[in-house]
Design a protein that fits this description.
Blueprint (H helix, E strand, L loop, with lengths): L7 H27 L4 H24 L17 H16 L1 H33 L4 E5 L9 H15 L3 E8 L2 H7 L9 H14 L8 E10 L4 E4 L14 E4 L2 H4 L8 H4 L2 E2 L1
Parallel strand pairs: 1-2, 1-5, 2-3, 5-6
Antiparallel strand pairs: 3-4
């Protein structure tokens, strides 16, 4: 502390603020404790045994919470998260059984979703073993914008397709007015078909790669504040069911910034 370039009066002021802060917390706690039990709190206390019985019955149906388990039971140091989890459940059961029921229901839903996803991945392993799967690549930029998220996914799609994989590359489509903000001068397109022709020509002439893959456009807008292209709506609706095996997301934080569609991990069998 002595090495910091602060004056003594500034340090004293900061210490005083911290002291006032904690005194306020203590005062609020003492005031709350001295008020006594309100009629509403009294009714809630009387209902607790009945609520606890209903909650325990529902928890048994959900099969995700063992209310009778010892929260400190442990088989080793690796069980520390499980002990913390059980302590939290026991505390919730004592303090707020209704909240515990909401938490347990959400946990049961998550558990079922994980089980379904695990079964799907086991099935998908069979597809991978016989090399029978589709790869969807979704990116946030496209040529003629010469940026990494336009060129790298394009080359990845082309080389994977040349290796015999089934590939779909999804790129953003901007309105011609917004194309003028980022595309080189004179390279604007009225339709996605015109832009696709330009992309494939660049791939053959500049990269020297001849490959057959599906190129698909999704609607997007250019965000001048972030300097990035943001998709509009649910991108997954542009993929057919037979294309939903593996999905490779380029700049996933941009693709999901305003995303309101189904979870990518549930729409595709495996997301990278």
């Amino acid at each position: 502390v002595n090495s910091l370039p602060w004056r003594d009066d500034e340090m004293a002021g900061m210490a005083g603020l911290h002291l006032v802060h904690w005194l306020c917390i203590v005062l609020l706690a003492v005031t709350a404790a001295s008020r006594g039990e309100t009629p509403l709190q009294s009714r809630q206390r009387e209902r607790k045994p009945v609520i606890a019985h209903v909650v325990d019955a529902r928890l048994a149906q959900l099969s995700v919470v063992d209310a009778e388990a010892d929260p400190d039971e442990s088989d080793g140091i690796l069980d520390a998260p499980k002990r913390a989890y059980r302590r939290t459940l026991v505390w919730l059961r004592q303090q707020n059984p209704e909240l515990l029921l909401i938490f347990a229901a959400a946990l049961a839903t998550h558990k079922r979703a994980r089980a379904a996803k695990g079964a799907q991945l086991e099935q998908f392993e069979g597809q991978v073993s016989i090399d029978d799967y589709h790869i969807a690549i979704v990116t946030t930029a496209s040529l003629p914008w010469m940026t990494g998220t336009a060129i790298n996914p394009l080359l990845r799609a082309a080389y994977l397709a040349r290796a015999g994989k089934r590939i779909t590359l999804a790129v953003p489509w901007l309105h011609p007015v917004e194309q003028m903000l980022i595309f080189p001068k004179g390279k604007y397109f009225e339709t996605p078909a015109q832009q696709e022709q330009h992309i494939r020509k660049w791939l053959q002439m500049r990269a020297g790669v001849h490959a057959t893959f599906t190129l698909r456009f999704y609607p997007a807008r250019y965000d001048s504040e972030r300097g990035s292209i943001m998709p509009l709506g649910d991108i997954t609706r542009f993929f057919e069911s037979h294309e939903c095996d593996i999905c490779v997301l380029e700049e996933p934080e941009h693709l999901t910034w305003y995303y309101n569609g189904p979870n990518w991990r549930y729409r595709f069998k495996l997301v990278i």
